[in-house]
Design brief:
The chain is mainly alpha-helical. About 60% of the residues lie in helices and about 0% in strands.
């Protein structure tokens, strides 16, 4: 089994460290938010500020891909953390196969030839670095969002603003 050297684990810019920071922030969020249902119908600060600054006069519905309230955002962060810790769970897709199983099946179905395409292999390093940069950026943003959600919950509960 491959061991991780203590040098790479202690490097604050390593992927492992970024992953640990996000998981720690998500665990802190989960431990702090004792009653997640209090987050229901509480808009994210970004959405509340945007609607005050720029009202929606063109009668377009809000973007369905964005979280509508803090509760949905909390569930999203928790789900991402679980996927990172446990891998992709079985999805309700086609045969119920996970993404990894579907990728393996797709790879097996492709015809095997003796020719190795140099273009495909020479681009692997570029693809790896592209996705690694993206992963670093996404994990850093998710860590900040988990910390922000935790701090806002503490602030709001401290002031009793969530009580109905």
């Amino acid at each position: 089994m491959m061991q991780i050297s203590s040098d790479s684990a202690s490097n604050k810019h390593s992927l492992i460290n970024v992953m640990h920071r996000f998981i720690a922030a998500a665990n802190n969020m989960d431990e702090t938010i004792m009653v997640p249902s209090l987050l229901r119908d509480v808009p994210l600060e970004e959405q509340a500020a945007a609607s005050e600054v720029e009202p929606n006069n063109n009668n377009e519905p809000p973007c369905p891909n964005k979280q509508r309230d803090m509760y949905e955002h909390y569930l999203l962060l928790k789900s991402i953390k679980n996927d990172m810790e446990w891998g992709l769970l079985k999805r309700e897709m086609s045969s119920g196969a996970s993404f990894l199983e579907m990728a393996v099946k797709q790879e097996e179905q492709q015809p095997v030839t003796g020719d190795v395409h140099l273009d495909d292999n020479s681009d692997l390093e570029h693809q790896f670095h592209y996705h690694l940069r993206g992963l670093f950026g996404v994990l850093s943003k998710l860590t900040l969002q988990a910390d922000h959600l935790t701090n806002r919950y503490k602030r709001e509960i401290g002031g009793g603003n969530f009580m109905r």
